[in-house]
Structures are given as C-alpha cells and as structure tokens.
Amino acid sequence: MPLFRRSRRSSRSSLHAPSRDLRSTGLPVRFGISALVMAGMILLAVVLVTVGWWGARQVLLDMAERSAQDAGRIMTERSRRIIDPAVATLRQLAFDPITQAGELDARLARIAAFSADLVANPLVSAVYVGYPNGDFLLVRALRGAEQRSFFSAPEPARFLVQTITRNANGQEHGQYRFYDDDLRLLSLREQPDYHFDPRTRPWYASANRALMPSISAPYVFFTTRQIGISLSQRAHASEAVVAIDMTLDDLATSLGNLRLTPHSELALVDEAGKVIAYSDMNRVLEQDGDSFRFRSLDELNVPTLSLLARRARSGETNALYHAGGQEWLGLSLPFNVIDDHPLHLLIAAPGDELLGQLERNRKTMVLIALFLVIAFLPLGWWAGRAIGRSMERLAARARRMSRFDFREQGKTASMLREVNMLTEMVDNVSLTVEAFLDISAILSTETHVEQMLQQVLEKFIQATRCQAGAVYLWQRESGQMQRAAGYGADHGLAESFAHDRQHTPSSNTRALPDGSLRVELDLRGRNGSLEGLLVLVHAHDSAHGDPRFLAFARRLSGMLAVAIETRQLIAAQKALLESLIRLMADAIDAKSPYTGGHCERVPHLAIMLVERLAQEREGPYAGFSLNEDERYAFRLAALLHDCGKVTSPEHIVDKATKLEVIHNRIHEVRMRFEVLWRDAELALLHQLPQALSEQQAQALEAQRARLREDFAFVAQCNVGSEAMSEEAIARLARIATQTWERHFDDSLGLAAEEARRLAATRQGQAAQVLPVTEPLLADRPEHIVPWDEEHRPAVERGDPRNTLGFDMTLPRYRQNMGELHNLGIRRGTLTPEDRFAINNHIVQTLVMLKSLPWPESLKSVPDTAANHHEKMDGTGYPRRLKASELPLQDRVMALADVFEALTAADRPYKPAKTLSESLRIMANMCRERHLDTELFRYFLRSRLWEVYAGELLKEGQIDAVDIVEIEALTGTAAS
Fold it and tell me: Looking at the DSSP assignment, which residues form a beta bridge with residue 486?
C-alpha cells in the first residue's frame, strides 16, 4: 500500500511538471527530409537485395494459400450444391401420402413422385420408404448397362421398384417391378430370397422430424461401387421414414480440377484418416469380400499428405513444411458439408513449382534496384530540401491552429502541387472550424429565430464555400415554404413557394441558368418532422460535386434543423403554458359574474406600468430593466395572481348581504307553514261575533308599525352599505329578544351535514315538545362550522406544517352563520370567517404555484403572483412582508390590483368609484404605508391611469383629477 501511494504521488508530480519544449529539439525538416530521402535510397538498395526476394516469395505463398483456401471453399460449395437439392427433395417427400399408405397398391400409385426426383437429380441413386411394420419400398434409377445387368432388367426398363411387405404373421414377401420412362410396368418378378428389414438400418433409427434430415457418413454403394451418402427423415404425419441414396462422384473430379500446380496433391479424409476422395479413385477403394472399404492415407502411400495430416492433428499452423527433401505448402481445411461427419480437405503444393519464376528474376531485380538508387541520390537531396521548406510553412500554420488561432494567413505558393493542395485544405479546415465556432456561439446565445437563422446561414455559407443560400421555414397551415433568411446573390431564391413534403426527396440538386448548382436540403427535427428547407447555391466544381460534400452539408444542416426545432418547441411550449394560464384566469373570471375581467384587467395595467418603468433612463427608476425572461415571468405572474380563487367559495366571494349563505330553503317553507298555522287561528278568531275595541285596534296597529320599522332596520343592516354604530348593534339585540312560537319540527328536511350539526348541539337534551318558543334573531350552536384537521389551513406562524412562511390569523371557526353575528358586522358584509375564506385565495395561489417545477428563469413567478396583498409596513398578508422584502415588480402588482379593485364596476358589495375617488383612496393608502408612495407618484405623473380609464372604465367614472392635490394626500412633498 505505501508503494501504491508513492506511485500516485509520483504520477501527480509528473502531471504537474513542466513539459519539455520539443520545438527546439530535432533537425530542421528540410535537412531531415533530405537526409531521410538519401538514407532511404541507400537502404532501398540493401532491402531490395536482401528482403525483396523474401517479400515477393511471401506474396506468392500468401496468394497460393489464399488460392488453396478458395479451392476448399469451391469444393465445399460444390458439395453443398450436391446435397442441398436432395435435402429439399427429402423434406417434400416427408409430406407425401405414400408415407401414410397402408397397402402396396396405394404406395405404388405414388412412385411417380419418386421417379421425378430421380430424373431431376442424376446424383440421386435411389429413393425409398421404410414403414414401422417392417414394409419397405425403394425406387431406383437404372443408369447404364452394368446396373441393368446386375438386376437382369429388361432392355427398355428405366426404373426398378423393390418392395417388401409383411403379412399378419410377419412373413416377408419381396418383389421387383421394372418400369419404362412413362412408368408403364414392364415386368413383375417375385424375389423369395429378398430379405430386408428397414427398422434395423441406421438410417431408419437416426431419422427424426427435425428441419434438417439425418445424413450418413460416406460409404461405397455395393451395386454401383460409387461413393455416396444416405439422407433420411421421418414422415410428417406418420412413423414411416423416407430416405435417399446419392452419389458423390463429382468429388474426385473436383479434386483433380483444383490443383494449384501440376504436381499438387489433394485428398478428402475423415476423422479416422480414411481417404474419401482422391484424384485417382482406383487407389482409394479396396475390395474386402463382397464389400469395399476406403484405404487410409498411410495405405495410399502419399508421404506429403500423410505428413500434412499429422501436422494438422498436432495443431501446427505453419503452412510450409518439408517432405521427401522438398519444401511444400500445405493446408488442412474443414469440409463441413455432412452434419455430424466432419471431413478435412488436404491440399499440398511443391514450393519449387510455386516460386520457380521468382528465382529466375532475382538477379535482374537486384541490378535494376542498384542502378535506380545511384541515379536518384542527387535528385533525392534536392527534392528533400524543397519539400522541407514547404513542410516548415505548413508546420507553422498547424502550430497557430494548435494555439486555437484559426484565422486565415497569407498564402505562399509551393512548387509542389500536393503541398499547395495541403495548404489550401488546411486553410479550408481553419475556415470551417472558425465557422463552426461561430455557429456554436450563435446557437447558444441568440434566442430570436430570424436573427439566429440569418447569422447561422452566413457562417454556413462560409463553411461550405458556397455562393449564396437561404433558409425557408415550413408553414404547415398554408403548405408553403417561407423564406426566413438569405445570404449572397439572389439566384432566383423566391420569398415563398409551395412544397410537397410527401413526395419531395430529402435532398434535391438542379442546375441554374448561370451554370451554378442549387441544392435543397430538408431540415428535419429529431422526430423526423419537417421544419424547413436549406437552399445552397454553389459553383459546379469537383469539390462541390463530390458526394461527400452533400453528406457534409446534410450533417451540418442537422445542427440548424435541431436549433429551429428547439426554438419552435420552446415557443410552442411558452404559447401552450400562457394559453393554459389565460384559460385558468378566464375560468376564475367566469366563475363569478361580479368579478369578470379582473384577471384580465390587472395584468393589463401591471404590464403597462412595468414596461413604462423599464423605459426610464433617469429618475429613481433609471436602473430598472427587464430582460426577455424577466418580462415573461412578470406577465405569467400577473395572469396567475388570483389563480387561488379557484378554491374560494362563490357564495362568499359574491356575498352581497350579511345574511347571504348557501341556504336550505326548507326553513322558508317551514316558516310558511307557521304562517298558515296562524292564518288558520286568525280566520277562526275573525268569525267570533265580538269585535276589537278601539283600544285593542290601536294597540294592534302600533305593534304592526313597530314590526314594520324593526324589519326595515334589520333589512338595512343586512345590506351593509353603512358602518354599524353601537346604537345599531344594541337595537339589533333588542329586536332579537322578541320570540315566536314554532309549531313544526326544525330537524326535518335537512341535509346530512346540517342535520349532523343540529344533532350534535342537542345531544343529551330531551326531545322538544311543540310548540317551542324561539327568539326572532339568534346565534345558534348549529350555525357554527368548526375546523377539522383535513381543512384547517397551515397559515399560522407557529404551525409546523407552515413551510412557506405564512403569517396570518386563523379565525376560531371555519364558518359562523349566526344571524346576530352576521348582522352585527361593523363594515361591509363579510364576517372574519368570510374574510379569511376570501384571503385564503392568496395562500392557495402561493401553495399551488410553489408546487410547480418552474425553470430557473421563472422562479420568481410564485412570489410575484402571491405578494400583491402585502403592505409596505408589513401588515399585509399572507406573509407580512415589508417594503424591503418586496421587489419592484411585486409593488407594481399590488398597486395595479388596488386600482383595478377600486375602479371595477362589477362588484356586488360596492358601487364603482370615479378616477379621482380611487386615486385619493390610494393616496391615503400610501400615507398609511400600504402602497409604495414613490411608485404611486410615478403612476400619477405617467398618467397611465388615464390610458387605462380610456380603455376600460365607464364614461361616468372618468372625471377631473388634480394630481398635485392627490400627491399632497400621500404625506410627501412633490418634487
């Protein structure tokens, strides 16, 4: 471990050690090249003498080795072409009905299919079927007099059908049938000595239903003494086995035709060393009684092949070896034609026959090489110096490029064309790299598509060395290409044109009248969608005519396509986001008919004001500015400033009177029944003969007048248009003490929640006995809706769930519908519970917006949207932020929201105020440090309120405004 640490320290020290300046080491290139050329020519003479022959020798040997390998492949392919048709034939026969035929006649009816295969493939010797009961049928083609003589066949016979059938006792019955070319039966011969059971044969046992048939090892056919193989496969629909015997006579002939030299030796052997094929097949086969066998390599007595086989078995890889005092080139190649029976092709060629001509040319090559070296030594010195000077200039250019200096330098012509071409290519590469860097900088910094396209196109034209170009953007609605940028001469580049994106190729080239070429390249995004078209006009020269130029331009245009797609995607996402936000704002406005347009008017005024502030170049707001991202973030915040109102109860937002609630009208219906009850009693009393005395009539009329007066007072209190005095509160309490008799059960017909609250307040009390005396006005326990854990907002400072810094006072109850509680509201129509329910919309605004994954440029949106109810003195809500904690954009939002609320003509709880009234109220709010005084004074002097009034206020609200007077109300001196 210590050694490892030392190694790491040494590595670090070597990394930080100053590198040696290699520019001062080595010879100058002109001397180095000259000396190298001279030394190379001298060395060439030596190499030509000592190595030239060996190199040529190796080439010839390699060529011979490749030729041998090619011969092996040819041999293998020829053999496959022999076997593959038979394999296909066998697959077809496995489906033939003959495999399912149980009677001999049905089998004989299908021999036409077998004879057709024998005719089609002359290498097929016989086709036969073995049945699971031991029956056997074989169709053999009689080719040649020797076969006809062996079977004693009639002269016209072309086919022999050998059959064996077994009766119920298992006795065999053998027959020979001879047929002519038309399958007409010529003779039937009983063969009592013909005994054969296919089930005992290897080809029957090894057959299966696999895709490839079972193939036997090569063997000698007894009848024809030909070398062949047997292919067998089990039938598709039965247990019968179909087999084919086919000869491999072509192997020996092929070996003779593949000799590399006149005395080359070739043989095909198996794993046991038995010779399967040789150019002289008479030496291969040896008769052993009634059968034949293959001789081994040693028995064949060909030493070169025997030694080659032993080298192959021992793993020798060198193709050269010596045998019989002579050098041989030998290869052992796998002959994988017969599955499960690996064979090897042995090829040996004598070295003197391969290299004979090379020996004769050896002396001539040496003399010529020596002469050329001596003759070119002076020329080499001169050329080395010339090339060296040119290379030094190129090295200086490359050194500047290595220092990231890609500027084009002055050109100096060289006497060598290649050096000039290399110099020009280095300059072109430098220009292209410089253009790439410029394009990369433009793509990373320019946000406007049109400006980006114009600048990138200019660099693109420079990088591709074109004459002119244009970028067109695809207009999906009109189906046309619209030019967005152009550079260079016009060359007939139209402003727009129709484009068939379905049938137009991705690249199109055509000639122009002036001889230049016009190339059109599709600009497609990452998903393959068409974004536009890049048109390039270039000279008709070899550089631009090279297909690689078009490939280079297409790859380079991909950067432009992706940049267009990315920016259009960003623009589309922005448009979609803004549309969704406007949709939410419109939904909030549509939720209540009394606040319609609020979420549209506030952003309109706020954006007008913030844009005017950003244009200031002097005064307190001279340093205020907004970039595109900040402008976009403010617009979104303005549109979303009341998004939390989607959670605000409509009956509270639109509460026009103090007693207005979501009301179950069963209470009104029950009261009507109470009136009917009294009407019934009154009708009965009116029928009595005794009339009211004058005193009683006066008392009744006085009571009626008092009730009318009391109701008018209660109704006036319900409107909430005036502030409630202490006397009014006391009078309400007196009126509430009046009682009435309830004759109907007030627990009938209630909603589940209302019934639950009523039952909870009367729990443990005795059942009410009607009639019940009720006060005229009351705050009943069932009027109170308490908070539950699920709906209790986390807005109090000490609440551990409060993670957003809220600082609000939570009312004791979620809702209080008490009649005296609501009628006793001092100002307006909202109880503290109602006020919190409305103010809670800004809490929900912040909660909702903070939960969204805003990008870094829009991180300010939630705070700007949620801070418009904060006050400069820190008494606002929901977080009691002070002026120092509120950016200018937040103060603008607060001012715009207040001005719109004062001038709005659609609020049910107040009349629309005039301009002067609204501005005076705002001035008082500035004096109380609710609004930003400096910003309000700027608003006054900019007269943006006048522009807003002309667009959105009613004519009756627009009156004369004394700016000086209103500024004085703010409590600050006008500057």
Answer: 470
